[in-house]
Amino acid sequence: MSEQDVHHTASFKTLHVMTLNVHKGFNFFNRRYILPELRDAVNTLSTDMLFLQEVLGEHKEHAMRYHDWSGVTQYEYLADSMWPDFAYGRNAVYPEGDHGNALLSRFPIRQYENRDVSIHGTEERGLLHCILDVPGEADVHAICVHLGLRQTHRREQLALLCDLLDSIPPNEPVIVAGDFNDWRLQASKVLAECNLHEAFASHYGQSAKSFPARWPFLRLDRIYVRNASARNPKALYRKPWSHLSDHVPLIAEICL
């Protein structure tokens, strides 16, 4: 085994994760298509897993309108050569195409399931549950979350998330990240009953301000862990990140 292999094997004890609502590849107010710039930015980070929300699988009108529109899905375009494995959970379908959640991973995704948590057929939402094969570790569970805008819907969706968590073996590491739309700050109280702990709240006493990206004051995006600990959580407030979506990206080191 080479020195590089030894270093890489040791790094499996710590996973670098990022969560971002990519806003379908457009900046704030949908004024500019910025997915190529977003890909350049995420490629500068040594991230093992990307939890993405509002990522397009297809959009026929945009493909004809923008000259630099990718010929592949947005999650494949972002994965490029950096993240060899990915999973997509299609949540919303419309005549032009579809969008949903995606997970990009340096580690093999052994299996995945997209759970529909839409309430009464409005605001199509999902929980993308992936089981990762991380060498030297038990199964690592990654759940990419995008919850609804209405408090009553989020309450039901959090209950469905807890049902999913109850189905996971209690000793296996779990990372739950995404856009919770939880501006009333109720989710952490519910998820604490499922033994989930939020990275920013554990370190700074409260979740990160993440929306809107240029003037963040709402704490919508989260990184939760179970059977793991989070270290060095950061919200990427500065350029270019503040101009690449309407949400602020969050990153953290997850120690297994």
From TrEMBL:
Residue span(s) of domain Endonuclease/exonuclease/phosphatase: 18-247
Signal peptide per UniProt: none
GO CC field: membrane
GO BP: GPI anchor biosynthetic process
Top-rank taxon: Bacteria
Pfam families: Exo_endo_phos
Gene Ontology molecular function: any one: catalytic activity
PANTHER family: CALCOFLUOR WHITE HYPERSENSITIVE PROTEIN PRECURSOR, PGAP2-INTERACTING PROTEIN
Name used for this protein in its record: EEP domain-containing protein
Native source species: Vreelandella rituensis
Lineage: Bacteria, Pseudomonadati, Pseudomonadota, Gammaproteobacteria, Oceanospirillales
